[in-house]
Amino acid sequence: MDGSSFPRQAGMAAGRRGLTLTALCLAVLVAQVDTAVVNLATRPIGDALGAGVGALQWVVDGYNLTYAVLLLTGGLLADLYGRRRIYMAGAAVFTAASLACAAAPSVAVLIGGRALAGVGAALLLPASLAIIRVVWRGEAERGRALGLWAACNGVAMAIGPTLGGVLIRSLGWRSIFLVVVPLALAALGLAAVAIPESADPTGRDFDAPAQILGALALGGLAFAAIQSRGEPVTAGIALAVSALALALFVRVEAGRGAAALVPLDLFGIPAFRGAVAATSGMTFGMYGVLFLLPMAWQDAGRLDATGAGLALMPMALVFVAVSPFSGALVARVGARRATAGGVAVIGCGLLVIGLGALQAALLPAEIGLALTGLGMGCATGPLMGVAVGAVGPARAGTASALINVARMAGATLGVALLGAVFALAGGGGAGLAPAMLLGGAVQILCAGVAWVTTRPAAATAT
To answer: Quick one: which H or E segment has residue 459?
Structure first.
């Protein structure tokens, strides 16, 4: 089915858009809750399956690596073969992977199941965002939908650790993989009845050379981050492979024009370019905070793991509270102020955390976390909207994949670079201060890029 037949279907679907949005929000919850709870289960998994630290790291990172490698593929498949079809395939794969993880007799099978879950997420999330682009055509209504979609990230951050801790304590580690199965099945069932199909394959193909080079570039970046803490030489080699693959990828795509996997003219659109830069900066700081702040608290003996999880709650709660209103914020002040301003607020939050890192009181960190959640709530939905709204519906899957690549790349680099600064400065409060000050500076720089490039005219172009 090509894109030309979609407007009629979108009209037919207008009465059930609530169900459509529910299905798309479930996709976010499935992927994010799964990620949040697995981090808590590594110790009981190791005890039960006799796994060492290296194997347990791959229980977490097997998901991240396959997700990174296949993001571009998932976006292209959605555009070529149908966004609902690929969304449903992703939900089905994720369900099967979760069941395999819950029943895993060995750590090798568990790692394989986690990698398969990454495949499902790489199909599910870009298709989910692309469907929002093609179902909600108007900027204002798309902004409201994206605000709720983005809020689900905050919901997952808020409930994931608590839910995981309760499940592990009462039902054992296998239950954390089963908890997402009803959500994934609900997403699958709702998609079948509430999401209209759309595709835009005209003039495009699978572009195998670009697929391989893109997978090497993204996979190398993710693998470098994974290995950076334990094997810096291996990480350096992976980073070099990633850079070489990226250079070759750009060269291949430049020769294919509009038929490319990633048409380079997308980056000639100022609004899209600004959204990518701001999104990378946003996750650079956000994941840096989530990674380093609990570590610093525990290094200094100020909080244990449970206390650190509870102390992070202000960020998630403010994010959840603000995100649903981000569409209204864009309508009132414009996408430029919402996106650039939101990322700048996150930067201010990191600066507050950094300036208070050596204080005994937790209040500066809690204020910084609240500011971080406020900025994320203001910026996340609008940034997604600017990215997918800057291109036509025919490129919705590709744009969705690229903005998720920006999220992943920013998070990967934030954990790696800010983690390196933290370690070089000796860890604890002494390491947290320079890491957060650097992170805040990067955030504010990216906010400036978004301010310059995300102009109202560019943000509403299609």
So the answer is: helix 456-459
Taking CA 213 as the corner, what is the angle to CA 209 and CA 217, rounded to the nearest 5 degrees? 170
pLDDT at 434 over 70: yes
Give the tokens for residue 333. 């002040």
pLDDT digits (tens, 9 = 90+) for 329-341: 988 998 889 999 9
- Taken as a whole, the chain contains a residue count of 462
- Are the C-beta atoms of residues 198 and 78 closer than 8 Å to each other? no
Rounded CA-CA distance 182/341 in Å is: 37
The fold adopted by the segment(s) 1-207+256-261 is Growth Hormone; Chain: A; (1.20.1250)
Name, in order, each residue with C-beta under 8 angstroms of 198's C-beta and a sequence gap of 6 or more.
1, 3, 6, 9, 82, 83, 84, 131, 134, 393
Buried b (16+ CB within 10 A) or exposed e, 320-340: bebbbbbbebbeeebbbbbbb
Q: What dotted CATH number matches 266-462?
A: 1.20.1250.20
Tokens of 5: 């037949």
Sole residue written with tokens 């998720």: 404
Task: Note the helical H segments in 356-427.
Answer: 363-389, 396-424
pTM above 0.85, yes or no: no
Tens-digit pLDDT profile for residues 56-97: 878 878 888 888 889 899 999 999 999 999 999 999 999 999
